[in-house]
Amino acid sequence: MPGTLVAMPGALPEGEAVPRDGSLPAAARRAVGARGFGVYVHVPFCASRCGYCDFNTYTAAELGGGASREAYADTVLAELALAGRVLGDTPPPRVDTVFVGGGTPTLLPADDLARILDGIDRTWGLAADVEVTTEANPESVTPESLKALRAAGYTRISLGMQSAAPGVLAILDRQHSAGRATAAALEARDAGFDHVNLDLIYGTPGESAEDFAASLDRVVAAGVDHVSAYALIVEDGTRLAARMRRGELPYPSDDVAADRYLAAEAALDAAGFAWYEVSNWARSEAARCRHNLLYWTGADWWGLGPGAHSHVGGVRWWNVKHPSTYAERLAAGESPGLARELLTPAEAHMEDVMLRLRLATGLPLDVLDAAGRAAADRALAEGLLAADRYAAGRAVLTLRGRLLADAVVRDLLP
């Protein structure tokens, strides 16, 4: 089934130590920005914890001492200053995209989010056509805060709607009312945001086909130009997983999730949206999330914040998870990087196939070895790849192929 790509997993991988000053190999620094450069900013604060979420986020009660929302922007700016020193005389040519995610970034004052964006501009320079996105929970924004964000240079907002059904929102432990997400989307458009996204989750226990159809209807009526829709993933350690283990709720059904995905494709296609990644639809090419495309096409980005991941010139690293430890490292003048890895050609190839096959532009067939090409031939025969695009030298998933995307990727790889 189509799944979600997450930037902030609950558990960090292992790797070699990051130098205390955060320095990178000269080859990585020379290559920075060759395929585009973005900045990700993680804001790890939430007013409450959703039952399905295992992201690196903290409520006030979970945060403990040594970190605070009030000092957070200054801490991020300290990491940004370190990043500027690391890249030194080999900076990226420009910052193409900025994405502020969480958590709930809009729990920070709009002035703090503006200061962070200004710091990125002063450090590396924002492209004239830069895309600047912030995530937001619907209840965390007001018409006034949205106008302030737009005035600060934010061009795109992604609102966590998840569902328009009150019962589904309750199971997910969402705090906003059923109508608040679409109201916030309208407020964002009135504030002048160029692009507005609404996120949906489908396959929640208790969600009916009618519930999901109503959610899609609400999304279309809100006039947004981008929709993300993800199957519910039950992560170990979450409240939702515990409820399922106790038998209070049934586990998600793959068959139901497939039906929901087909319903999303039908409704969004009829409303003028087109898929450009397995779980993402846009009304136009301009409405596609350029920051996510940067991830999916192997470009570079610097991730700021606790638990954030970065990728520069084939080197990937990730920061310490807890905001207190993150702040302590930076206060001591040290990199907050916990560990890193240099991607091997085989690993880079695997990720390239895995990510680019999820895109509507597909994967060039000439990047596959003989075994991969044979697997692609079988996928074509099974109706999982589009015949016209295959004849033109690209592997592009059909609708049926999107439902089986993970299996197709596995077959194409050694």
Automatic annotation (TrEMBL):
Q: Does the entry feature the keyword Iron-sulfur, yes or no?
A: yes
Which Gene3D superfamilies does the annotation name?
Aldolase class I
Show the InterPro entries listed in the entry.
Aldolase_TIM, Coproporphyrinogen-III_oxidase, Elp3/MiaA/NifB-like_rSAM, HemW-like, rSAM, rSAM_sf
Q: Which key words are in the record?
A: 4Fe-4S, Chaperone, Cytoplasm, Heme, Iron, Iron-sulfur, Metal-binding, S-adenosyl-L-methionine
Q: What is its main location?
A: cytoplasm
- Compartment(s): Cytoplasm
Q: Which Pfam families match?
A: Radical_SAM
In this protein, which residues make up the domain named Radical SAM core? Answer: 31-274
Leader sequence residues: none
Identify the SMART domains for this entry: Elp3
Q: Would you identify the family this protein belongs to, as annotated? A: Belongs to the anaerobic coproporphyrinogen-III oxidase family. HemW subfamily.
What does the protein in this record do?
Probably acts as a heme chaperone, transferring heme to an unknown acceptor. Binds one molecule of heme per monomer, possibly covalently. Binds 1 [4Fe-4S] cluster. The cluster is coordinated with 3 cysteines and an exchangeable S-adenosyl-L-methionine.
Q: What name does this protein carry?
A: Heme chaperone HemW
